[in-house]
Amino acid sequence: xxxxxxxxxxxxxxxxxxxxxxxxxxxxxxxxxxxxxxxxxxxxxxxxxxxxxxxxxxxxxxxxxxxxxxxxxxxxxxxxxxxxxxxxxxxxxxxxxxxxxxxxxxxxxxxxxxxxxxxxxxxxxxxxxxxxxxxxxxxxxxxxxxxxxxxxxxxxxxxxxxxxxxxxxxxxxxxxxxxxxxxxxxxxxxxxxxxxxxxxxxxxxxxxxxxxxxxxxxxxxxxxxxxxxxxxxxxxxxxxxxxxxxxxxxxxxxxxxx
Length: 258
Known about the structure:
258 residues; alpha+beta; Heat Shock Protein 90; two-stranded antiparallel ribbon; 18% strand; globular
């Protein structure tokens, strides 16, 4: 048998991997599928917790009352997990926008009408200052509604004892601007720097995905979002949309898929 030379050739190169790194779409698909796999057993857990509560509620024993308190805690935690999963799926699974020409003021009014009862219960006054003669914009109404509602809910959380939430629209050159101004405590500078980062939440129980999701939707429309805040006075979230939003959002979606 001839000798085998195990020495490494001088010109040897490490083997090239045949695998290509996963794309952002691959990661979104994988994580979205994983989230759905978690939601299924979570739904089973929530259902059985509810059945257990019904069983224990029929008993008037101290042990049953203690069990009910523990079940309430478990249900709240399950709901928190459900909220996190829902927000996560909304964030990672974008959809192609279905744009249609519409009135920004009408879309803002839809959110106000939807939130009016909840605002009354939270002692929050909704104050619209909707500008006249706004040019039409091109929006995916479902996505824009969801983004705007996230901002409204964020404002509600900032005012646990009630307050005022102002909606103001106006034309600024080739853009229209929507401002949501609350009378909450304002946001600390160190928090403001991170507020649009996914999973960063400065409130107990928050998922940290509502504001990043809203910002992502606005950017998909070719717009932008920023905030101004003053401690002790409140916060203003501003949405800027180009008047020719149809072309801008098409360009934006092309860049994301390219």
